[in-house]
Amino acid sequence: MTDRKEELKGFLAQYLDCMKKNAAEMMDKPMPEADEELFALFEKTGNRLRYEDVYFCRRKYLAVFGCLSILDGGEAYTGKLEEVLKGICGEECWALPAHVHRDADPDWRICVDLFAAETAQALAEIVSLAGDRLSEDVKRLVRENVFRRVLDPFQKSTPPYLPWEGVDYNWSAVCAGSIGCAGICLMQEEPERLNALLKRLAASLPNYLEGFSGDGACMEGLDYFTYGFGYYAGFADMLYRYTDGRTDLLSQEACHRIALFQQKCYFPSGRTLSFSDGSTGSCYQMGLTCFLAGRYPDMVIPPVECARSFEGDSCFRFMHNLRDVLWTEGYLKTLEGKEQSSPEAAAPKVMVLADAQWNIAHGKSGGGMACKGGHNGEPHNHNDVGSFLYLLGGDMLLTDLGAGEYTKQYFGPQRYDILCNSSFGHSVPILDGNGQKTGAEYGCGSFAADGRGGCEIHFAGAYGDSRVRDLKRSFSYDPDTEVLEITDELEAETDVPMRENLVTQFVPAIRDNRVWIQGETYACVVETGEQTGGFVIEEKKHSSHKGVLESVYCISWEVPAQEGQTGRRKCRICVKPA
Fold first, then answer.
1. pTM of the full predicted structure?
2. What is the CATH number of domain 350-577?
3. Which SUPFAM superfamilies does the entry link to (predicted)?
4. How many CA atoms lie less than 13 Å away from 127 in the CB half-sphere?
């Protein structure tokens, strides 16, 4: 317990020190301007990053000077904070270009998207907590803008406010949570209006919780759990305190299951599950994790080195930044005097999320494997039914690429032309040159895991090929030897060509009729019992979520037809440490 307390104190010291260093560097620098040329770039080319780089740099100013004005006495930062608040209030539109439709909506400047709502929450809470040091003119300006741009448009709208009110994914929690917090901060002098607002928001949030699987999995990916549930928890905490404990949005058992999802996504090495628009290197929000650990005794805090630093959130969300400090400090206080305590329970070696259809196993090196069933109409969907990943230590040797660069095309009709979203960017079979089809109707017919690392998936339905009767993929994994065995069996009415496809970001090599993959520390070898050559290694390019062009290597080979058995093909793959 003493070690944990010291780790948390060290985290807080580094976090605050980083904020102060940023404040010193930014104090005499003006915020960059987000001009029309950058705003229009998304409409012209589909590029989001150039405008968003400037937009989120401005939110960094807001987070740095807003948080420090609240946490550090504030007097030294008040003048700069007022300058920043005026600048944010002077922006033409708080929403991102990707979320407005200037060609069709003459009122596009007033759009309550994720980031307009987040901005309203930040400004409202800053005025609420640091208002005694701000001028009346600045406080009035902030109030006017929060009401005009977010609170009034939402309250005057007829439910549901599109596209997010009542939906079952992160937008619902982020927007509703932000608006609820802003309302509590600014509307307490109008209790009837505030209570009407809170009643409407509370009615929409159960749908958000229903978007998680029955086992608490966020199908959008781990980072979207952090994003959405962070705002849900922030609003729940503020609402609980505003109502003197009468309203508790975290009292449901579903929230407990959702909270525990985070620890299931971490391998012992610190790498993370990257299904859907996830990442192999996700960092958790320390404040949110401490808050949930204070609520749920079986919540495990991952290694402190995996926590997101202040600079780690490229969007610089004030809600998360402030609570990384306040909630961590609050959790530390609960640990005071607890010198002796039983150690946190180690994660089980094998975890099965039957409703989400995920099978996760940890290996002795700190790595492991994970595979999934599901369907191809999931939130932030990839056509990846039957896909898997394999890692030794921290080396993701067979990978799931996770999220790519968010562009206009990424969320449009061309989504599945992008490598990381298509079957060709996942370790799944390719049938007759075709990947899987898109839509919830294309998915896993059955999923069964034995709780010991074994899993069997029937997923012919993901391909939408009427000739295919069955496609079975069986996994066997030994956590001690870290040997993964995969058997694919195809049964079709006529002969359907089948190629295996494995994906890695390390340069593979073919030696002795085997595929060798050397990572930074570990290496693995891929063997196929029936295969006698014909491996093809193709280098492809992947634009990462940060817009960095990366190399991806797809290893493929033809699976021969079984002699004398029309329509049947079978392949055994063994992946083991080298």
1. 0.95
2. 2.70.98.70
3. Chondroitin AC/alginate lyase
4. 28
